[in-house]
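queue> holo job accepted (pyridoxal-5'-phosphate)
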Amino acid sequence: MADDAHPSWAIYDLDRLRVNLAAIRHFIGPDQTCIAALKGNAYGHGAVPVARALDDEGLAAFMTGSFEEACRLRAERLSTPVVMFAGALPTGMADLVGAGLVPTVVDRASAEAAADAAPPGETVAVYVKLNAGLGRLGVPLDAAEGFLDELAAIPGLEVRGLYTHLPFGDAQGRDWAAQRLAAFDALLARLEESDRIPPVTQARASACVAAGLADRANAVCVGHLLYGLSPFADASLADLSPYRPVLSEVGSRLIQVSDHPQGSDIAIGGSYGLRRGRRTGVAPIGVAQGLARPVPGSRPHAHVRGRRAPIVAVSLEHMVLDLTDVESAAVGDAVRLLGGEGDAAIGLDELAAWFGVTPLDTVMALSGRLTAHYRGASAGAA
Ligand SMILES: *Cc1c(COP(=O)(O)O)cnc(C)c1O
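queue> job finished
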């Protein structure tokens, strides 16, 4: 088997995408549609398989950051429009428009460049990004109405969407976001009144949705929740139990099992003069495959033959497990680092905590470095 040449894998369960999307929809109600954030190769899950799995869900858009990734999505001939987050220079607008993408504009020069790239007799759709207080990107909220009026005067330009971003991780951030959402809502109300409202309006991403903040926009744009990841550093902010991580399993296999007799000197963790015999095993997965070294004091483990096997060392390409209590362990045995059923399952939160990183950073680090398998009804085409 080809997999045996480097037996380490990740399983992405695409059915969980749909479960998570259903949970998001249940929560936001029927009056808002969803945009899926696919940036960062769909938060490390694979933009193309994720997009294929979601294309028949009737989403308002797929949004992504990189031009290369967006072109791969367009090449799939999906029915969902691909909208670019802000990321291009004004001089790059023609490439985006030429590739059939919907650019985000944050200034007049970009909007004019996009309109200039329109094929004769056609209009070009753009989204406008507002800075509602995050302070990172976009047209300031109080300049939004004037900016939209300027764009309305540019021939061949259609403002299809108006959005902003209000991410937060703790209770103080939630209060800030609630206040900024109210300011965005006030703008939307003025635009509705004067009949200048674009077809798609969006301010809430995973944090606002999960925290139950409401707004009058007609769409939400979700990344974290869609992939079953918490947007919060503070776990008490929301009950995220309906959401399941799409990364459902990480595993490898034992390539060697060794018995070290009592009294022998092995240097793993400075175990000189072993007080009792010890069995260790090595699996070919380490820092190069996206794991970090365990946080001192954490007690990471994997599952081998249904037993807990403590992880005693992680090096660049290998992991050493203590198999002393797994008597029958043998070369080729599966080593499960993430996944499993019931109480014994190892969760993504737990795995991330052992390595001192967030669940999203764990998923991103493992992405593209292990053999990826896609599961679920929508994986057939992937
Ligand atoms: C990434 C992103 C989102 C999605 O954020 P999540 O917290 O992952 O749901 C929404 N809007 C913008 C502008 C983004 O960049």
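queue> Residues 170 and 268 are 39 Å apart (CA to CA).
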